[in-house]
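Notes continue from the previous slide.

Worked example: a multi-chain complex. Inputs as given:
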Amino acid sequence: MRILQVSSELFPVLKTGGLADVAGALPAALGAQGCEVRALLPGFPAVCASLRHAQKVGRFTTPWGEAIEVVLGDLPGIGTAGQALKTYVLMAPGLYDRPGNPYHDSRHQPYADNHRRFAALGWGAAHLAYGLDAAWAPDLVHCHDWHAGLAPACMAFWQSPHRVPTLFTIHNLAYQGCFDASCFAELGLPSAAFGVDGLEFYGQVSFMKAALVYADHISTVSPTYAREIQTPEQGFGLDGLLRRRAAQLSGILNGVDASVWDPAHDPLLPHTFDARRLAGKALNKAALQAETGLNPLPDAPLFTLVGRLTEQKGLPLVLGGINELVQGGGQLLVLGSGDAALEQALAAQAQAHPGRMAVRLDYDEALAHRIFGGGDITLVPSRFEPCGLTQLYGLKYGSLPLVRRVGGLADTVVDTDLETLDKHSATGFVFDDFDSAPYQRALRMAFALYRRPADWSRVRQNGMRIASGWEQSAMQYRDLYASLTSPT
Ligand code: ADP
Ligand code: GLC
């Protein structure tokens, strides 16, 4: 089965969050299941710089009259097998050749022509689905997040004797790609598409809604999030539509790419370790404390958070719990960037607690590895979380996740209590309500367990031994592709 994977990011070439990890890991994982996956990416500078053996395969003209060259090349060394990934790239310097973040400028303002930049991605996918490359055409197009959201609409209105099915995966419903209604004229879709049954959303154009209406199937990155987004609380205004499409909506959990995240073979760790040889973990902790200016206390539980500093990630709870954490004898290390107010508040707290709390307002892939490798607890107290990857990395690196019971966090972490300890199923700490009291109760539970080294080590072992690779999920995607390409 030939699959065209359409996304705006792909690790290790370009990454702003978990979407890139997933897009980078899936092709090889699906390859192991007998799928032939090629990627389609916009020609962002980082993508063009990494592409090898590029050859022109064709060109198409956007609805607003811009000619775009499509090239096919290799992105080297991606995925478990480390094989090159055949990738189509849209060469449109006027749209994509801008330094920095792929979505916004240096003042964090979305680019004014984002509707064109990502409509081009949608049309590029449609052209590839319907014959742009005479040598290769996909059996199915798998689109990720709103950036690729126009593709299912472009393909639904394509005049062709045969249909190529589409799967759209929601990684985060909070980001919808909404644009002024005036943009619709440039999208090249029939006027019928701009209605309540199409991509119109409260008077605007929504790329997310386009995908949810026109994709043959919708998936999201955990079974719990698939249910949550059908409720008004988590549906971001699209829950009604998602309820109507419930029969074509499912959740498939993300995995961990062991070629990138494995403490036994991680070249970014000062000391490697595994579930049976944990000495390296203690050495990593000491190195991390030294590197970040935390006091060299081997017995102080080191709480860590790696992530985008946004409301989603539960930073208000973390800020509100700092005193509890520090007074309990813990340390806190945060690596992240994002919301300016949150950055400032964290920096001020770090200044107020020298040696006890440190903050790195940065995006640093290697430091993230060292944090999972040296930390004791991985905080993910999210308000919502479609899947979440940092709790999975925490499990694998023996840094127990402390999470809210929501989305993919609820599906991947088992709370510690006497029963789960006894059954060897406990893997972390889980609290329910998005409120400071339950969050701080979970912190106290972490402290209590930490004071019982035998139990701590048992829970850590449970987490480190979980099989969290991509195999199971890739099999589920493969089965889903099969059902969509040969419907009964
Ligand atoms: P989301 O996609 O919502 O940002 P995930 O937990 O799914 O959250 O994935 C986040 C990914 O980005 C992880 O690989 C995490 O390690 C990484 N990451 C987030 N912030 C940073 C940062 N400041 N530095 C390095 N890596 C980061
Ligand atoms: C999104 C979600 C996150 C998920 C990631 C990869 O950015 O916020 O929960 O893990 O996509 O699917």
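Summary box: Residues 17-19, 22, 171-172, 221, 254, 385-389, 408 surround alpha-D-glucopyranose (ligand 2) (CB under 6 Å). The longest helix spans residues 114-129.
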